[in-house]
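Action item from last meeting closed. Structure (172 res):
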């Protein structure tokens, strides 16, 4: 079974975890909070979760309160170092919040939204302002493409036109 690490429990992170678990991925979600209560969903996030039929859908993923200290991509996935336990290997790492700062971690000079098996979902969300679409498209890409590189390429080319279109259609 494919494994994914999703960093961030905002709506983009939860939507990504939900879509990946529905596609038979084994998902670990990192929450930087200090409590072990479920993440409260309010306002637009609650509306989006209902639209995704995430409530009362049982989200089958493991939640941890750890911090990523380093990412080491290889040909097949990513070895992730944590602050509170041993390193683990994942097929993909999805950073759904900027506090992950994956692009600033040692040995990782990301020049676009993704490299090897790392997706900076928060960057796609920031640029396009369509977090649910970004999360769902990322999971769709892994369903459609058997090769991770092809999935990331498809995802980036699908989202980047939206960011360009939005830049020219914003009302100021």
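Sequence:
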């Amino acid at each position: 079974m494919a494994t994914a690490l999703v960093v961030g429990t905002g709506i983009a992170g939860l939507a990504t975890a939900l879509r990946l678990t529905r596609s038979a991925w084994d998902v670990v979600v990192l929450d930087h909070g200090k409590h072990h209560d479920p993440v409260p969903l309010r306002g637009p996030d609650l509306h989006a979760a209902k639209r995704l039929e995430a409530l009362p859908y049982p989200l089958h993923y493991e939640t941890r309160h750890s911090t990523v200290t380093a990412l080491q991509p290889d040909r097949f996935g990513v070895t992730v170092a944590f602050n509170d336990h041993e390193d683990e290997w994942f097929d993909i790492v999805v950073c759904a919040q900027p506090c992950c700062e994956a692009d600033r971690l040692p040995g990782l000079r990301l020049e676009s939204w993704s490299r090897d098996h790392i997706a900076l979902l928060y960057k796609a969300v920031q640029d396009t302002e369509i977090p649910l679409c970004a999360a769902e498209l990322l999971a769709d890409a892994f369903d459609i493409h058997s090769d991770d590189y092809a999935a990331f390429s498809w995802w980036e080319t699908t989202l980047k036109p939206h960011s360009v279109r939005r830049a020219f259609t914003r009302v100021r």
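Note appended to the action item: Residues 167-172 have pLDDT under 50 and may be disordered.
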